Amino acid sequence: MKQIEVQIMGQSYLLGCPDGGESQLRDAVERVDAAMCKIRDAGKVKARDRIAVLASLNLAFDLAAQQAAAAAAPAAVPAATAPAETGEADPKAAQLIQRLDQALAGDGHLL
User: Where are the domains of the chain?
Assistant: First the structure.
């Protein structure tokens, strides 16, 4: 296992990476960074930990939606044209994010 340094929202992280997995890890870092920057740039959430939680939930929701779509109709929707990839907003995801934001609004610390 080797270590690689990455940047997420301008902060450096040293991550362990299995041999041959660097490309996949860097792709994952890019997705996390993009998701976090999108939330930060929207201006509604300022705390880095809250941004991380919301980005994690968004990515997990997108992954679950893709897996459900693939299980329901494996050949019907290619991965490149899935709604999560085209940036279409999912009303249920938006509602979940809003509820999370309301629940976390009064708490400056998650831990």
Answer: 2-104
